[in-house]
Amino acid sequence: MQKENQYQPETNAVRIQTARTDEMEHSTPLFLTSSFCYDNAEEMRATFADETDFNIYSRFSNPNVDEFVNKMVALEGAEAGYATASGMSAVFASFMALLKAGDHLLSARSIFGSTHTVVTKFLPKWGIEYSYFDMNDPGSIEAMIKPNTKMIFVETPSNPGLEIIDLKLLADIANKHNIILNVDNCFATPVLQRPLELGAHLVTHSATKWIDGQGRVLGGAVVGRKDLIKEIYIFCRSSGPAMSPFNAWVLSKSMETLFVRMERHSQSALTLAQALENNPHLSMVRYPMLPSHPQYEIAKKQMSGGGGIVCFELKGGIASGVKFLNALKLLSLTANLGDSRSIASHPASTTHAKLTDAERANVGITPGLIRISVGLENVKDILADIEQALEQSK
Ligand SMILES: *Cc1c(COP(=O)(O)O)cnc(C)c1O
Fold this sequence. Notes:
12 strands, alpha/beta, 15% strand, globular, pyridoxal phosphate binding, Aspartate Aminotransferase, domain 2, Aspartate Aminotransferase, domain 1, 2 domains, five-stranded mixed β-sheet, 14 helices, binds pyridoxal-5'-phosphate
């Protein structure tokens, strides 16, 4: 298996591959097997005693899953990694394996909805405290660290508000206080941003989004420092959130096109954001690589592209958001993002409909906020559909 980080990242994304079988196949086959065999009792004993690196059982490891993990590790510049059934199981495992009762998690307030649920509803049930900080006020973070703070968690850019934080600055704070910095890198992917190079200790991913890129399978990964990944592996090996070999096979093939896709998604998203900036129906357009983005300078410093998500605020609030969705002809109305097909969503009337206006404002969601996941269609068609729907959203 070509495991070494011997080539450029684009080449690693294509060429890291499970060792060829005797059939001499070119493309990695599917290893749909729950367990693995041994030639004799001694080999089996040695494997269970961790004296070999042979596979045992697909909850622990599998050739397809290893291929996917090895690509993620190479692209993020990590020491080790573990792949999980979904992005949420990756985030959850990173908390469960490294936090214990009495510990404190310091998290950004603008985080994915299910992560928010885990942090606020489940961690306290197990005696793990949390506090939220405002990503727009990084100066407030250090004072929130307590003697029992074990981890800082952040998503940058955040979903859905595209808030951005300086990862180097966060890493300096974390290292000064001997705290783990855990970064959800779902929106940028390792193509556009590598948090470990900026000093983070762990990176979590929902591979369901840009890594798959075609809205087919769920998956997740945690990569980072070897000692931390070892704890996560031990937790996952026993608790069972393993990635399916089939999903790993799909995701590893997807990664062969990740670089070219992210380049196109970013290019089209920037074109779209620029074209919408002066639209009379909008009070705000947000994209990391627009100079009007509040953290534009940080985005330019730590990201090589803005990614595929563009947000804007409709002047007409919630009612306009509903009209806008109904008027779209090309863009899909669906909960996913990071697909080859462009997607529109209106958090205030869907994912965040149960919250009050004040609660929504707290997590950066305003009544007329629309999130566009810019796909791989011709950007002229994407823009034309959005513009005609805006005309009808008044
Ligand atoms: C979707 C998402 C997740 C959760 O991933 P799943 O694969 O849906 O479990 C976590 N973080 C971010 C930023 C996401 O967008």
